[in-house]
Amino acid sequence: MRFTSLIIELIRARPRLMFWLVVSAQALLWLVVPLLVYASPPEGVATVLAYGREYQVGSDLGPPLAFWLADIAFRAAGGHIVGVYILAQLCFIVTFYALFQLARSMVGPQHAVIAVLLTATITAFAEPGVAFGPLVLARPLWALVLWHSWEIIGRGRRSAWFALSIEVGLLLLTTVAAPALLLLPIGFALATARSRRALMSFDPLFGLLVIAVLVLPYGIWLVRADIFALPPLPASTELGDRAILAAELFGGLLVALGGVALLALLNTRFDRGSDDAPVVYRAPVDPLARQFVYVFALAPALLGCIAAGLFGLSHVLGGAGIALLLVGLAVVMATGDLIRLRRQRVLRTAWAALVAAPAVAVILAAVVQPWASPTERATSLPASDIARFFGESFERRTGRPLPAVAGDPELAGLIAMGRSRPHLFLDAAPARTPWVTPATFSERGGLVVWRAADTAGKPPPEIAQRFPDIVPELPRAFERMIAGRQPPLRIGWAIVRPKASP
Fold first, then answer.
1. How many CB atoms lie within 10 A of CB 315?
2. H/E/C letters for each residue in 448-475?
3. Is 297 helix (H, G, I), strand (E, B) or coil?
4. How far apart are CA 402 and CA 423, in angstroms?
């Protein structure tokens, strides 16, 4: 008698339920893990909150939408970082929902769930998805853009134009990579006669009007800031290093796909005997849908790595989550109309292990690394203790809430998350934080912090040069959640007292 597991029966009979079980479980996993082992938010999140607190139309970090949403989520959670973690997982859920809807319209709900299961093993959607910022917010918007683009191009649904125009506008307000990314669906729409027919109406004009309204304030800021220029092209002597960078980024994408490759290998048939594995069927796929999936599974990754290498970026253009979004669906589409699920118990165990492995790695790194290495993790700093101590110290000394904090950018960003939400002042590059100038910092007062190398707490030369009148206080030592071999975190500090009001 042939055995069929409950999971396969759910895939075949209740694909929507299976989708929600898988996505909800993974979102819950990456909500709980940071709350358990992160003493401070991932690298860059404190800066996102500091910029979002100002509600600027634009900044040197790019369009404003991700920063605004991060601050709203942080305030809605009562000033707790859990609000930002929840926002990050909402982005994950919306991304996979749009992927499921896109896949369902092409290959049916059963194969769509299999595509979601494969995509869930891609490590780009695991720990990196916790660090909310423009790259994380761009993922659901890109997935929605692809879904509604296919609704228009492949299914002729004119009603999707309004949703698509809003999603394109929001994507433009999220990442500087949006214009380059949007060239891909535009190019695909113009490449075939069938897709060109979908553009022959007034709907695209109305869509452009909606996009223009959404991005107009940011466009005005770009014009005034005069930062339209692309990053400089590399010199001929740098081409070799840039090519290596592009190859390394592409290699990182391949590593992130290791789970997909492993599951495909485990499901491969190696003998020629009878095959009685359970089968998941689908109707024949539209040839245009096949082209759509293959193009958007390959082009963002290849072109994103080339662009990142050309301009010297530290990540794939648009982020790995965008580059690898349709790989699982592409694998399902290439498999054929019948997918036989062999070695059911092995597949089930391997999938669960692949999904849980990144979370286990994060927990082990948080617990073991302090004992095995003196290297500090960004998430090991006691953020709440640091922000509370310095905020209360300034208020006790001056009788006023802490208005701004400067010095070490990492420490200053953590203090800026405190109860009074002081402004972040990047004194080494004041133009990056135009909401505070050296003159206003000197007039209103604030706090200057740095990492102290000893108990004397002497400021580094560059900070002493920018703030020649500060009087250092005794350094404050903070214990990490797990100290291990790492010494206590010593923070030197000095108060810049506000000038008396006339």
1. 16
2. EEEECCCCCCCCCHHHHHHCCCCCCCCC
3. helix
4. 9
Q: 17 — alpha (psi -120 to 50), left (phi > 0) or beta?
A: alpha
Query: Do 300 and 318 touch, CB atoms closer than 8 A?
Result: yes
What are the pLDDT digits (tens) for 338-375?
888 887 888 889 999 999 999 999 999 888 888 887 77
Same domain flag for 419 and 303: no
Mean pLDDT of 297-322: 92
Determine, yes or no, domain membership for 1: no
pTM here is: 0.93
Nearest CA to 145 among 257, 26, 292? 292
The torsion region of residue 78 among left (phi > 0), alpha (psi -120 to 50) and beta comes to left
Residue 470 exposure: Cα atoms within 13 Å on the Cβ side: 29
Q: Where are the alpha helices (DSSP H) in 121-159?
A: 134-153
Mean pLDDT of the chain: 89
Residues 429-457 have a mean pLDDT of 90
Overall average pLDDT of the 423-432 stretch:
92
373 within domain boundaries: no
Domain count, the chain: 2
* Residue 447: per-residue pLDDT: 94
